[in-house]
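[step 3/7] fold_predict: job queued, chain A
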Amino acid sequence: MIRFAVLAFVLPGMAEAACRQALALGLDVSGSVDATEYRMQLDGLATALNSERVQEVLFIQPDAPVQILVYEWSGPFDQTVVVQWTPIATAHDLAQITAKLRSHRRATAAPTTAIGAAMLAGFAFLDDRPECWKRTLDLSGDGQTNTGPRPQDIGAHRTPNGVVVNGLVIGSGDRRGDDERFADIKELSSYYTSYVIRGSGSFVEVALGFEDYAAAMERKLMRELASLVMGEVAPDLRQ
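[step 4/7] structure written:
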């Protein structure tokens, strides 16, 4: 019989820490994201956080919880915090976060796409959580940088020590042929892989469109949360 256990990932000295992981999530709200896609993105994040699998990992160590911050980004000077740093130790904590995500209304911002500026903003947010065992920046986007500092020009010396940057690229939801859509997704994924993600174990997740955002976000959260889901083989003593 296969038994599955969720085991906390603990290194020497971590027992004294109050934060298992700081996870800053930056959401693209540039001009290419329409009103429907905007809601799919925020509601999709709420859905992913509320999934049974993600909750199991989030609540595994309530004495050293994951802390989450959510912000929107578009132009070089447009980064709006939706959810301030919040530890998730209980179902009530999670419910407060998802309620904020579902009730938040889009602010006026530039229509441009400034991934480099969004990255620097995320670094600044994570600098406020040096006590966390692991620090992760998670950038979602549906296009390449067209203004502000380019992500490839932000050197390693500007990345806070130990911070990992992951990406979630979102494919176009238009009615072009599948071959063209997949080509665009592949190109954007390659762009994020080459210039955006960084750090040990960093990766890019793909959503085929905003309608796939919740499922893609759940997959990504399961990979980046600072717990390990391990399977172990144990004999069935009833046999």
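[step 5/7] annotate
The first strand starts at residue 2 and ends at 8.
Residues 43 and 224 are 20 Å apart (CA to CA).
exit 0
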